[in-house]
């Protein structure tokens, strides 16, 4: 009789599936989380259906026994199928996907009291610059010494010193506290007729496991039309039938306003999942999700892979957002994986957006997704009028960036006591620092990128690798003093310009540098609601989700910025971004207005925004994609080859290029330097693959790369459906 054996996928991405013997008395079914021996080590893994995974044949006599089971619920079957699909589609090791399902082994340990630390509010007897920085950064935070030190960018020794000095204290936390249960009937809204009909249609799709089916839905409603209120009704229904609901949000900074609204509707907060969680919070949330106790989860894209035992509904809010695309590790698109999870779970998936992606709209056009529309803003609010401001006719004065008529409008708004928003998608003060004498430009030593001046933080920073340097006083090339100039505007520079024009105005800069945690986002919302801010200068971070009734003027500082470069999605992206930022204006009972600064008011994107002809814009873009057989009518994949040594990267990329198979319906371009030719000290080469819709391009790439070898110093990553290129 053959020994009872089990196939295990460990969380180690370097290993393939391994077979083990099941010791007497242990019952191991697929999905079970197990501990498996490997050499002297013990690894966490998941038992898998043996017939679904190939592995090296190992005789019974060579099998080692499993160490045991981990006391957590098994990885459910639909999620195992999703993991396989994700690994296949994105050409990633299954283990790398499992690491997103079980993201921290600390979540697996038994119940535990944990010790965390928080500032006491008293200053230490001896203050140092490091201690001062640490205390400033950790105000209002709690976490382990390591977490706090990392957050404050000081050493753990500094943090422990603060504990000794009494400025930071220990607190016990219970990592197994239960979560409150959202009440579906806590405070239902009074829906408009249009909202009610959409909500009814959504609710009808929700049911117990036996009655529900895969049902992808585009909830397409203009900004401020109440999409959130409407999908809240679907969530309420999922809670009523006893199932779990997941809401994916694009940006962590958005979660705070969302939590407030959720609490108003359901009486308590949902369970949040994002990268800013402390280890103890992560552990508590993971266990509540896996046990089914967490009824509603709101999270970043990574929450998509958590082991919900009974998911009844998935919502992807702001579904057009590019940040749903993961660019490292498993390079997946959370919007697309969400739809696949809905498919395997057999549940509805709601994609909510005022500006859906061309791909999503196309799925509606061909009848694969259904569409629910909301065409009116809630209450008295109207969509704001968008006007172009031709910079060739109404140019800003030298060294300034705001045209006179936009300045006039800002002044009018200030006098009326209404709030304004200036949008420029560029962090920092200036994107480039230049020496006037010798022309030297400050470049990142690790990346093909300029060092961006951040005046608020007194440094230059690379936005790709995080490299920073103090602001230079003289040119490192020619040694000239006072010859350095900041070129071009970032949001901080616009804020300076506003301060010079309106010294009495209260201005806030809103970027990921100033809003880096949900608590900061909450503070920003509070200050806006309290009327403590007159003018916001912000990046794309302010284009999303916020609702400020007294915000009536939006100025787009540079509408041409997003159209530079030859990216496939440049026009679509600009359209979405400006439409979204415009959507922040006039959400209350006062009408809003939007001024868009451009050098080319006739450009199709700008013209469509002004005329409000979104359908026309979508139709033209879709036709252009169809003509060029670009997504969604054709497929793209990128192979990125990187190495610290430039020649090595080039050599491997060349070999991959030479090994390209001749396949009908597929063309390979390159290798050529990737758009970021150097990133974090690695030289990058790229091959771009363009294939017909029907071609199984993953299969081709698997065989193609599988036949080649390269040194461990060279990294080869495949980006299937790359977002930008
Ligand atoms: P969207 O997500 O479509 O931009 P929201 O759901 O944020 O729109 O709604 C815009 C604003 O209008 C929010 O403050 C929301 O609370 C409010 N609102 C929308 N519908 C209703 C309703 N039926 N009753 C009360 N307030 C509503
Ligand atoms: Zn860099």
TrEMBL record:
Binding site for Zn(2+) 1: 435, 438, 475, 478
SMART domains per UniProt: DEXDc (SM00487)
Cofactor dependence: Zn(2+)
Catalytic activity from the UniProt record: Couples ATP hydrolysis with the unwinding of duplex DNA by translocating in the 3'-5' direction; ATP + H2O = ADP + phosphate + H(+)
SUPFAM superfamilies recorded: P-loop containing nucleoside triphosphate hydrolases (SSF52540)
Keywords: ATP-binding, DNA replication, DNA-binding, Helicase, Hydrolase, Isomerase, Metal-binding, Nucleotide-binding, Primosome, Zinc
Residue numbers binding Zn(2+) 2: 444, 447, 462, 465
Cofactor binding remark: Binds 2 zinc ions per subunit.
Similarity field: Belongs to the helicase family. PriA subfamily.
UniProt xrefs under PANTHER family: PRIMOSOMAL PROTEIN N
Name under which the protein is recorded: Replication restart protein PriA
Origin organism lineage: Bacteria, Pseudomonadati, Pseudomonadota, Alphaproteobacteria, Sphingomonadales
């Amino acid at each position: 009789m053959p020994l009872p054996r089990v196939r295990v996928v460990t969380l180690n991405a370097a290993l393939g599936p391994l077979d083990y013997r099941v010791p007497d008395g242990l019952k191991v079914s697929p999905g079970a989380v197990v501990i498996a021996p490997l050499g002297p080590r013990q690894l966490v893994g998941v038992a898998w259906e043996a017939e679904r995974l190939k592995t090296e044949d190992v005789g019974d006599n060579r099998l080692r026994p499993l160490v045991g089971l981990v006391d957590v619920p098994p990885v459910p079957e639909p999620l195992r199928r999703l993991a396989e699909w994700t690994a296949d589609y994105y050409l990633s090791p299954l283990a790398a996907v499992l690491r997103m399902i079980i993201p921290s082994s600390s979540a697996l340990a038994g119940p535990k009291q944990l010790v965390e630390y928080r500032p006491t509010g008293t200053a230490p007897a001896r203050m140092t610059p490091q201690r001062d920085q640490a205390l400033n950064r950790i105000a209002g935070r709690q976490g382990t010494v390591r977490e706090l030190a990392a957050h404050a960018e000081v050493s753990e020794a500094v943090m422990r010193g603060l504990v000794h000095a009494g400025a930071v204290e220990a607190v016990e936390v219970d990592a197994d506290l239960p979560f409150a249960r959202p009440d579906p009937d806590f405070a239902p809204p009074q829906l408009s007729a249009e909202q009610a009909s959409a909500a009814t249609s959504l609710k009808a799709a929700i049911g117990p496991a036996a009655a529900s089916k895969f049902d992808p839905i585009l909830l397409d409603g203009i900004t401020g039309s109440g999409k959130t209120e409407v999908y809240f009704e679907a969530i309420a229904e999922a809670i009523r039938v006893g199932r779990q609901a997941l809401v994916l949000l694009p940006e962590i900074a958005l979660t705070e306003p969302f939590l407030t609204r959720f609490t108003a509707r359901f009486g308590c907060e949902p369970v949040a999942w994002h990268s800013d969680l402390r280890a103890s919070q992560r552990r508590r949330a993971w266990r509540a999700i896996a046990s089914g106790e967490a009824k509603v989860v709101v999270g970043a894209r990574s929450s998509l892979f958590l082991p919900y035992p009974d998911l009844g509904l998935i919502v992807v809010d702001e579904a057009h957002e590019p940040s749903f695309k993961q660019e490292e590790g498993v390079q997946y698109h959370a919007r697309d994986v969400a739809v696949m999870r809905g498919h395997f779970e057999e549940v509805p998936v709601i994609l909510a957006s005022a500006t859906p992606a061309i791909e999503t709209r196309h799925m509606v056009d061909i009848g694969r997704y259904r569409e629910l529309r909301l065409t009116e803003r809630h209450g008295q609010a109207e969509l704001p009028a968008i006007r172009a401001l031709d910079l060739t006719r109404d140019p800003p004065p030298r060294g300034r960036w705001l045209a006179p008529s936009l300045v006039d409008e800002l002044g009018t708004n200030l006098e009326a006591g209404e709030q304004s928003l200036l949008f420029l998608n560029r962090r920092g003060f200036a994107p480039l620092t230049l020496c006037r004498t010798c022309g030297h430009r400050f470049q990142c030593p690790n990346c093909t990128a300029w060092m961006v001046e951040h005046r608020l933080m007194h440094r230059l920073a690379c936005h790709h690798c995080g490299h920073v340097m103090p602001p230079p006083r003289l040119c490192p090339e020619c040694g000239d003093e006072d010859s350095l100039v900041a070129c071009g505007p970032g949001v901080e520079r616009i804020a300076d310009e506003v301060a010079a024009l309106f010294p009495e105005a209260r201005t806030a800069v809103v970027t990921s540098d100033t809003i880096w945690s949900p608590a900061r986002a909450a503070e920003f919302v509070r200050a806006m609601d309290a009327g403590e801010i007159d003018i916001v200068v912000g990046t794309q971070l302010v284009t999303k989700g916020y609702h400020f009734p007294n915000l009536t003027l939006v100025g787009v500082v540079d509408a041409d910025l997003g159209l530079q470069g030859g990216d496939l999605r440049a026009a679509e992206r600009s359209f979405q971004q400006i439409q979204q930022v415009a959507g922040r204006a006039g959400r209350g009972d006062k009408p809003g207005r939007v001024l868009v600064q451009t050098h080319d008011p006739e450009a199709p994107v700008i013209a469509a925004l002004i005329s409000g002809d979104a359908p026309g814009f979508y139709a033209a873009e879709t036709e252009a994609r169809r003509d060029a057989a670009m997504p969604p009518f054709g497929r793209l994949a990128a192979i990125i080859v990187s190495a610290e040594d430039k020649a090595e990267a080039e050599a491997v990329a060349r070999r991959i290029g030479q090994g390209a198979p001749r396949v009908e319906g597929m063309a390979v371009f390159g290798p050529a330097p990737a758009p970021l030719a150097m990133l974090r000290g690695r030289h990058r080469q790229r091959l771009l693959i363009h294939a017909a819709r029907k071609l199984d391009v993953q299969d081709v790439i698997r065989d193609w790369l599988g036949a080649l070898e390269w040194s461990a110093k060279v990294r080869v990553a495949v980006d299937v459906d790359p977002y930008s290129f």
